[in-house]
Amino acid sequence: MENLDDLYPSISDLAAKARKRIPHFAWEYLDSGTTEEVSMHTNRTALDAVKLTPRFLKGVQKPDLSTTLFGQRYEAPIGMAPVGMSGLMWPGAEMMLADTARRGGVPYCLSTVAAKTPEEVGPAAGDMGWFQMYPPKDAEVRRDVLKRVWDSGMRVLVLTIDVPFPSRRERQRRSGLSIQAGVSRQMLAHIAVRPGWALATARHGKATLATIAKYSEAQDLEGVRRYFVDHYNHNPSWDYLKALREEWDGALVIKGVLDPVDAEQAITLGVDGIWVSNHGGRQFDAAPTAIDVLPQIAQTVAGRAAIIFDSGIRTGLDILRALSCGADFCFAGRPFLYGVSAAGQAGADQALHIFRDDLTNGMHQLGTPDIVSVQALENGRHP
Ligand code: FNR
C-alpha cells in the first residue's frame, strides 16, 4: 500500500495533487484570494517571520498536544475552518471532514453554505461539530436554524462578520465561476453529478420552505443564490449579535475580527470566543495580516474570551507561532480541502497528521511539554 506520508509529506504536496485532480474552476475557487492576493500572500510571509528559539536538555519525552476549549477536550489545537461549497471540490467532502475530525478529536466547523445539512454532519462529527452562521435576516428563520444546529448536537456557533459584502474574487471570475453573477454552465455541469447540492444549500428554515421549493423548481443555482441574497443578512449589527447571544445557549464565537475595538465590544455582549482572521485573504486585500494583529487583540481580550486564529496556517510550526502570539486555538481552511481533493478521506486524515506530526516535532525543539507552555513563550522564547 502506498504510504501517504511519503507521497504527501506536506500541505503543499496535497495542494499540488489537488490542483491536478479537481476541475480548474473548483481549484481557483479554493485556492484564490481577492484582488491582487496581497493579504493572502502576506499571511504566509508574516507567519514565516515569527521566530521561535529552540531550547534543549529539558527532558521533554512526549509532548502533549491536547487542549481544552469551551469545556471540550481536543486532541490538538487545530481545527477545520468553515469552507463554503466544500462538496464542489469533492462529493461528500463535508462528511469526510466530519469523520476525520471525530476520529482525530479536533473540531470541524460546518459552513452555512455547505453541501450537507447540520443534521447530516452533526452526528458524523460526534462532539467535534461546530456550525458557522451567515445570519438569516428573519428572526424566525434564525431561531429555526439555531434549533436545528443544536438538535444536530453542535454546541459551538460561529458568527462570521467579515463578509459585509461579497468580495470581487477576480481569479475565481476568470475561471468562469462567479457567485454574484449566478453560476456558470461549467459549474452547473459539475454540480449535476452531486445530487442534492442545490436543495441542501438552500436548506434553512421551515418558514421559507415554500420559497425554497419555488426556487428549486426553477432548477438552477441562480435560484439558490437569490434565496441567499433575499433571506440572508450579510452585514449584521451589534444588535443582531445581542439577539444571537440571547438565543444560543452554547459557546458563541465571532469570526473575522481584526481590530481590538471590535473584540472589546463583542466581549461586552458576552461572546465566548474571538476568531482573529482575514478570511485567508479572500475578503479585503488591504486588511492587516491576521498574525500581525493577534498579539494586540490577545492583550485586549486578556483571557476574558478564547482567542481562535486562522489565515495562512500550513504547518505545525505555524500553530506554534500563533499560540506563542496569543492564540488559544488555530484553524485551517484550504489545507484540509487540499487533502480531501487530493486523496479523499485519506487526504483529510493526512492533512491532520501533517499538522500533528510537525507540531510534535516543533514542541521537541522548543522543549515545551504541553500547549500551555507554548502559550507561555514570550517573543518566541521561554520566559
Ligand atoms: C472560506 N472561508 C469561509 N469562512 C466562513 O466563515 N464561511 C464560509 O463559508 C467560508 N468559505 C470559504 C471557502 C473557501 C474556498 C475558503 C478557502 C475559505 C474562510 C475560512 O473559514 C478561513 O477563514 C480561511 O480559509 C483561513 O485561511 P487558510 O487556512 O485557508 O489560509
TrEMBL record:
InterPro entries: Aldolase_TIM (IPR013785), Alpha-hydoxy_acid_DH_FMN (IPR012133), FMN-dep_DH (IPR000262), FMN_HAD (IPR037396), FMN_hydac_DH_AS (IPR008259). It is an enzyme of class 1 (oxidoreductase). FMN binds at residues 82-84, 111, 160, 255, 277, 310-314, 333-334. Residues 3-383 form the FMN hydroxy acid dehydrogenase domain. GO terms for cellular component: plasma membrane. GO terms for biological process: aerobic respiration. The keyword ATP-binding does not apply. It holds the Pfam family FMN_dh. The active site is at residue 279. Glyoxylate binds at residues 29, 132, 134, 169, 279, 282. Keywords: Flavoprotein, FMN, Oxidoreductase. Its EC number is 1.1.-.-. PROSITE patterns: FMN_HYDROXY_ACID_DH_1, FMN_HYDROXY_ACID_DH_2. Its cofactor is FMN. This is L-lactate dehydrogenase.
